[in-house]
Amino acid sequence: MPSCFLTSTFGGSNCDFNVAGVNRIAVIGYEKVSGYTATSGGTKITGISITDSSKFNEIFAAEDSAGYTDEYTRQGSNRFMTQTLNFTVSDNTESGLEKAHSLLLGKHIALVERKNGTWRVLGLQNGLQSSAGTDGSGTAAGDEAGKTFTLTSLNKGYSPIIESSLAKSLINSAISL
Q: Residue 53 burial by CB count (10 A; 0-12/13-18/19+): exposed, middle or buried?
């Protein structure tokens, strides 16, 4: 358990450019992951075990529609993070509807690449489940038209980091959602 007191500096100025948002999302059924290994503090995932030959399937979200948050929550003596993943998919085919239903009804783990190139794992401890979903046409020419998803999970601590090479090795890029 880490100390509850800071023992060194935290934060500081960042002289690099940074863009908010998410580049890539890939999901797998929660039941497909049989275990994982992490550093002693649990902040970095060093391995993910999958029950069969399954891989994470990539979701091609509409440009600038995806993002996630880790929100600290305290209820009584319990402390945890509420993870929320939001994205929009512009796929109105019959196959797209079937995949949307799977997302809405299932429990998932997600690999998420931030626009700064770092990868995170969401839903690893309790699985991400749909808490909201819409489908719309938009009204004006510039409106987003597609299916919007909100997936949430509870986690002990922030979503852990995963190395880019490990995350990419777990993704089946040939199948999209």
A: exposed
